[in-house]
Specification:
- With 431 residues, the chain is mainly alpha-helical.
- It has helices at 6-25, 27-45, 47-53, 59-71, 74-86, 90-114, 131-137, 145-164, 170-187, 202-221, 227-257, 261-272, 285-311, 325-361, 378-381, 402-428, and strands at residues 365-366, 400-401.
- It comes from Dillenia turbinata.
- This is Phosphatidic acid phosphatase type 2/haloperoxidase.
- Belongs to the type 2 lipid phosphate phosphatase family.
């Protein structure tokens, strides 16, 4: 039996202490009272800038930018994240996934702490052509989490490309930094919806950033963010990227060769469901955090268990003799349907299992959407739990929202299948 490291106990106790202290001292309300009026003032004062950009409106731009937002929707994540793992770039894939989850958590926490509005509509014209965009528009504005995510992922992608190609040419590094800076500048003109980029060559980095370059301009055109939101996302993104480049090696070493990895990360992920602020009014931000939190848990546990079989540094990579294009296409045809089936089955199993366990333990539960039979009172349905307010002992809530657990297990199962179940199928099919 593996011994429990002292740092793991201390870290988890620190998170638990923060949850209790934040609830007891009501940090969220105090921080909101200080920050919300200032941010709201700058959001309102930035309306003229948005209106100036929207003077260029026409039907073609409406269709173009609305269509581009679909490229980086939830279905995009579901399809593209696995491809990074199956292409042989496992280290990049798990680091980008964990970084995305980290950015999502911090960005959405700040959003719901500040609870600052998006640009007022009208006079700003906001186009939400898809269900994903409608959900995004329901979130608060500061910071632009899409700016934050793009800064972090573009920066880390550049770092990985230079490291993977062992390129020491300063001109290449400068060119890469220039590309990332162009992305950041255009993020300042509008909100981008996080695309996780594949990377095999610097050319692919350039083309994908160029695509995002055009896409980002459309976010302010669609009326999704104000200037202060973007600047906030930029500042947070640079700080998070700096931090991640400092610690990512230690995190990766712990995942692939540490002790108590699965049990530690499962406990940590569970606590993160409670270490989340309650917004002024309910938003989908906590749901996004729950999903990414589940994805991170599934990736970590799956990689830790199968690293030596499927995810070590000597695995075949795409565009090499060990993994030609036809074999990679075969992986896509087998893998994507498999993970979608696992996602469906995980959700169905969680919808059956969690209410059963809750009833056995005597825990009061409700469901806002997944289980109609457990729909509670209107007042309960409209209240989004967060921070320790999801723990009945620390809150006025009289029941748990079982949808949180269902969503968490659903995405954990999906991510686990990407790095564990599907690679086993590849082995049996000689892919």
């Amino acid at each position: 039996m593996e011994s429990i490291a002292a740092w793991q106990v201390a870290f988890l106790c620190g998170v638990l202490t923060w949850i209790a202290a934040s609830s007891f001292f009501n940090f969220t309300q105090k921080l909101r009272s200080l920050s919300q009026p200032w941010v709201t003032h700058h959001v309102n004062s930035g309306t003229d800038i948005i209106l100036q950009i929207q003077k260029f409106r026409n039907g073609f731009l409406d269709a173009l930018f609305s269509g581009m937002s679909c490229v980086v929707s939830v279905p995009f994540y579901t399809a593209f994240l696995p491809l990074l793992f199956w292409s042989g770039h496992g280290k990049l894939a798990r680091q980008m996934t964990l970084l995305m989850a980290f950015c999502d958590y911090l960005g959405n926490c700040v959003k719901d702490v500040v609870s600052a509005p998006r640009p007022c509509c009208p006079p700003v014209r906001r186009i939400t052509a898809t269900k994903d965009e409608e959900d995004n528009a329901l979130e608060y504005g500061l910071p632009s989490s899409h700016t934050l995510n793009t800064v972090c992922l573009s920066g880390f992608l550049l770092y990985y490309v230079l490291d993977y190609t062992s390129n020491k040419d300063p001109s290449v590094a400068v060119a890469g930094i220039f590309i990332v800076c162009l992305v950041v500048v255009l993020i300042g003109l509008g909100r981008s919806h996080l695309p996780l980029k594949s990377v095999f060559l610097l050319d692919s980095c350039f083309l994908l950033n160029l695509l995002k370059f055009v896409y980002i301009i459309g976010r302010i055109y669609l009326g999704m963010h104000s200037v202060i939101d973007v600047l906030g996302g930029l500042a947070m993104g640079l700080m998070i990227l700096t931090f991640w480049l400092t610690v990512h090696t230690y995190i990766d070493d712990f995942i692939v060769s540490g002790q108590n990895v699965s049990s530690f990360w499962a406990t940590f992920s569970f606590l993160l469901l409670f270490a989340y602020p309650t917004p002024e009014f309910p938003t989908p931000s906590f749901e996004f955090h729950t999903a990414f939190n589940g994805v991170a848990l599934g990736i970590v546990t799956g990689v830790q268990q199968t690293y030596n079989q499927f995810h070590h540094e000597d695995v075949a990579r795409i565009f090499t003799p060990g993994l030609p294009i036809p074999a990679f296409l075969g992986r896509m045809l087998v893998g994507i349907p498999t993970i979608l089936i696992v996602k469906f089955c995980s959700k169905a199993l969680a919808k059956w299992f969690l209410p059963l366990v809750s009833n056995a333990l005597g825990l009061p539960i409700r469901s806002t959407s997944y289980i109609p039979a457990l729909s509670g009172k209107k007042s309960d349905e409209k209240r989004q739990p967060g921070f320790a307010q999801k723990l009945l002992i620390f809150s006025n809530e009289d029941s748990f929202d079982v949808d949180t657990g269902i969503r968490f297990l659903q995405y954990s199962g999906l991510a686990w299948s990407v790095v564990d179940l599907v690679p086993i199928l590849f082995t049996h099919l000689n892919l």
